[in-house]
Design brief:
single chain, 402 residues, alpha/beta, Rossmann fold, eight-stranded mixed sheet, three-stranded antiparallel sheet, 43% helix
């Protein structure tokens, strides 16, 4: 049996090394946390996750009884008996071989105990439930969730939840377990639907957010869909006078779609611009990107939106940011009173699992998702079920099964 040892900073990185070097069917034999050293062993180094794996071991689905079967102990004697040896009075050589067979059984038992201990460690770290309750199907599910970019703690929590919820006959089928988790994730993702218009009632919707998240392109997509596909009267207002060529970019879109546009540079001009669109169905407001840490600029943004009396304020964020950055963006933009979250650039994100902890908190419901630069395409109303499947990599951005 060829055994390999891998070390990495996290379990996620260690499993990635195992899969890359030994393939997706490699068996994990042992995992532990080790302390490294520096300066020729004189100083302690950072802690590492050490994983022992093999591509030639077939790990059983459930750990068998630790009591060795009787046949395993007598197999060497039977084999020599069939070869014509006298089992009534075994020779010294035969007795040695029998003892060797018994030692082999003890070695197998030891390895099984080691694997059981490994599962115990994986589940018990940070206070989670005993790994003795995890058969192979759940461990494979745990590895898949880490591959989807969920943190180790999040992956363990979801595995424990599905373990409690799933029927015993489905516990060994990762595909069914993953589908069950997708339904759980779906139930925790808040969505608010699209911008809804009523005849004879004007709606004002503004897009805010950091720089470079795609607000102007998203405004153009929304305007084109409401104007060309729903035949609504749409007006555009931009206050993005800071970015070079930002006004010209939106003006180009407005001319192509045949929409009127107003440019506003101060709060006092916003009320007049909105009044010029009296009788319209929808007014879309494009704002300048603000740094989440620039509280003064965000307060100015709030003053402009107050003058516009916006009915909806969509906080636009890129799906390539991590959970920590997303939380910071939501926290800092609370001053502008956002009502929904609009997730862009799904086509550029390597994975969405890192966003799950924040999205499942439901701090802001999701309104739209965008997955490209094409206008008026590459935008859709947020669907919790589809987003859950994309987070777990059961479905890709194009809507097809992974």
């Amino acid at each position: 049996m060829e055994v390999h040892t891998f070390r990495a900073d996290t379990m996620h990185e260690a499993l990635a090394l195992v899969r890359r070097e030994l393939g997706p069917d490699a068996a994990i034999l042992r995992t532990r946390e080790v302390r490294t050293s520096r300066w020729f062993g004189l100083l302690p180094g950072p802690r590492k996750i050490e994983v022992t794996a093999s591509a030639s071991v077939n790990v059983p689905s459930r750990l068998p009884s630790l009591e060795p079967p009787r046949d395993a102990l007598t197999a060497p004697l039977v084999a020599f008996g069939e070869a014509g040896l006298n089992l009534e009075s075994p020779s010294a050589e035969t007795r040695n071989l029998a003892l060797h067979g018994e030692a082999s059984v003890r070695e197998v038992r030891s390895r099984l105990e080691s694997m059981e201990h490994m599962l115990h460690e994986l589940c018990c770290r940070n206070g989670t439930q005993s790994g003795r309750d995890w058969p192979e199907g759940l461990f494979r599910l745990y590895a898949d969730l880490i591959d989807a970019d969920l943190s180790e703690e999040e992956a363990r929590n979801w595995v424990e939840r599905v373990r409690v919820d799933a029927a015993c006959d489905h516990i060994e089928e990762p595909a069914l377990l993953k589908t069950r988790i997708a339904r759980m994730v779906e139930s925790e993702l808040a969505v608010c639907g699209p911008i809804r218009l009523s005849r004879g009632q004007r709606r004002v919707a503004a897009l805010i957010g950091p720089t470079g998240v795609g607000k102007t392109t998203t405004i153009a997509k929304l305007a084109a869909n409401f104007r060309l596909r729903e035949n609504r009267r749409v007006g555009l207002i931009t206050v993005d006078t800071y970015r070079i060529a930002a006004v010209e970019q939106l003006r180009t879109y407005a001319e192509i779609i045949d929409l009127p546009m107003q440019v506003v540079s101060a709060p006092r001009e916003m009320r007049e611009a909105v009044q010029r669109f009296a009788g319209f169905d929808l007014i879309l407001i494009d704002t300048a990107g603000r740094s989440p840490k620039d509280e003064i600029k965000i307060r100015e943004l709030r003053a402009i939106l107050n003058e516009a009396r916006a009915d909806e304020v969509h906080l636009v964020i890129s799906s390539v940011v991590g959970a920590k950055a997303l939380r910071q963006i939501i926290d800092h933009f609370q001053t502008a009173s956002p009502t929904a979250l609009l997730l862009t650039k799904l086509d550029e994100a390597p994975s969405l699992g890192g966003l799950l902890p924040v999205l499942s908190e439901g701090r802001l419901p999701l309104s739209y998702l965008t997955n490209g630069q094409n206008v008026p395409d590459d935008i859709e109303v947020a669907d919790a079920g589809k987003l859950a499947r994309m987070i777990l990599r059961l479905e890709n951005v194009a809507g097809t099964a992974s």
